[in-house]
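User: Here's a chain of 520 residues. Predict its fold as tokens.
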Amino acid sequence: EELVGRAIAPIKREFLRPPPPSSLVKEKKSKRQLKRERRQEQKSSLNLCPEIAKTGDVNACPYKNKCRFSHDIQAFMAQKPADLEGECPFCPYGLACRFAGTHKKKSSEVNGLSKDVQKLLWKNKMRFTKADAVIKSLGLELRPSKKAKDRSLKIHPREKKLIDFREKLYLAPLTTVGNLPFRRVCKILGADVTCGEMAMCTNLLQGQASEWALLRRHSSEDLFGVQICGAHPDTVARTVELIDKECTVDFIDINMGCPIDIVVNKGAGSSLLTKPLRMKGIIEAASGTVDKPITVKVRTGYFEGKNRIDSLIAEIGSWGATAVTIHGRSRQQRYSKLADWDYIYQCVRKAPSMLQVLGNGDIFSYLDSKNHRSDCPELSTCMIARGALIKPWLFTEIKEQRHWDISSGERLNILKDYVRFGLEHWGSDRKGVETTRHFLLEWLSYTCRYIPVGLLDVIPQRLNWRPPSYYGRDDLETLMASDSAADWVRISEMLLGKVPDGFTFAPKHKSNAYDRAENG
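Assistant: Prediction complete.
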């Protein structure tokens, strides 16, 4: 009881061990130094020109001597690491591929950005007839300096296609780690609804390939949405029109709860919670532009102790949203303290019957989900976020209504699936392998917080518990429990081969559970 009161996981005494000694974190390099090193590496034999790699012909590159990459096939092959075990999943990489075997031509992903559309976006020549007409009809500001011709489109009231979220397990859109390979893993383990990582509207409208990559969908994602974030009605309306035209999605979610400073300072994310009229304009503009269901994700309010979503919940439905997800924390709280589920229930009961309300925050066992549904039967379902990052088999536990004492071998098989999906998604050349490794390490920085059921004195584990240092029931379980980046790297080497010389890693997220950033 004392440990639980201090949010320390009550692990059985026989598994406890003294914490490993901490070591100094290596000094970070400057951005200029990193940029110079990247340029030097790009021209080195490590990076063979993609055209030459694909064809095997040194004359295939149209840029000749002006190419940014190496044209020395012999030097590239001399330093190329040994091939990885297995068959190539999907490969246009030719000589650069890290697999010896046949190359499959067909990809099972959709929602890519075509070069023609990207050029139109780059040149600001893309027409948004529907979005601009809706903005005009609502009397909202259309902000571009150049006025496009022929904006007179008559708006017809239309019936929205609806999605019934009730009883479905919804994997939240998760920045960085909620990528397509991770979502595929969660689908296998029982997730019903998946959603892409949050994409910024302005970046999508500028045709940034890295932002469009966040919209990609795998064929296994049978109920899939994308999440966008924008500060103005016209920006959001144009983005939903573009997505509706270029992508295959089942719904579009608008983020009005992101607490990150860089998003809030632009007037987007949780900043919108302080501007109800702007919220109204964005939702009305988006829902009036496309037939796809528009959903919204919010927090309880901007400031702690000043909840306000309950006063807006009835209007959100009338503005055109078909569902709203409430994260039970304010923007000021970020991810600290426990989610306020009593307030979520209060909002659910105030919502009109046509508006589905989903709850989000601290779901980490089947009992959490079961209790929320019994405490508030009007709740449509629970959205699962960090709980899925730490143990993606949470979806299986909820569906089977049990605590799964998963073995280290079973967990390793899940990581193997992730790596296979990562190589299909990011590529099987050197860059693809290292990108897969990077995102695997980001994920391992969360999974190390899982404590096996058989080691706990109190079940189930709570999301806010800090695990003390402990021994697992075998060496692999002990390794997976480590919060040292050096041990995460060791796990990645079991799946993707040795890391390149000079490799280091520090996780992107600033988790309190991450204390030591050394890489061994």
